[in-house]
Amino acid sequence: MKKKLVVLLLAATMSLSVVACGGEKEEANKTEAPKTEATKPETEVKEEPVDDGIIDFTTEKFNVRYVKHEFANDFEGNKCLLYYYTFTNNSDANATAGITANVQCFQDGSECEMGIMAEQNDSMNNYAMNEVQPGGTVEVCQVYKLKSDTEITIEASDMISFDNEKDTQKLAVQ
């Protein structure tokens, strides 16, 4: 819970600094594209990609793609989900998966707590400890403490976003 709070505070601070510094520059950089016959009409509707039920979420800053999942017990003996995904840094600066991407686990209508394993692996360390250079990809593992044996919903979204875009995946507890 402390990690999540720190991540949210860092994200809020970053978003405030972007909003505070970005106003004038955005106005100065706006230019209208020349109108030619090749320009697509504004009324054209974008086709939405078909949802295959697997997390594969891309933004300007990152891509999160499901790799695998497994079930284990945390250091207290609670049943946990170990959710593995790749994190690719699409930005032009170093980034950390746990600060940039927001991958959440829900069960029985509410968010699951983060689990703590007795032993950590490299993928678990990549969540909050290791930065990824622009264009780099690492495997990340997040651990969630399960509440029951009911279906799990995983949601991937941008940590700081105003459009509420997300990708969702359903998992059965084994």
Give the SSE map:
Blueprint: H1 2-29, E1 56-58, E2 62-73, E3 79-89, E4 95-96, H2 97-100, E5 101-107, E6 110-111, H3 122-128, E7 131-132, E8 137-145, E9 152-158, E10 166-171
Antiparallel strand pairs: 1-2, 2-3, 3-8, 4-7, 5-6, 5-9, 9-10
The gross shape turns out to be globular
Q: CATH fold name of the domain at 54-174, please?
A: Immunoglobulin-like
Strand order of the largest sheet: 1-2-3-8
- SSE run: HEEEEHEEHEEEE
Number of strands: 10
Number of helices: 3
Instruction: Report on the biggest sheet.
Output: 4 strands, antiparallel
**Average pLDDT for all residues:** 81
Fraction in helix: 10-25%
Give an overview in words:
The structure is a single chain. The protein contains three helices and ten strands. The chain has a domain of 121 residues: Immunoglobulin-like. About 16% of the residues have low confidence. The protein is of the alpha+beta class. A hairpin with a 7-residue loop joins β9 and β10. A four-stranded antiparallel beta sheet has the order 1-2-3-8. A four-stranded antiparallel beta sheet has the order 6-5-9-10. A two-stranded antiparallel ribbon has the order 4-7.
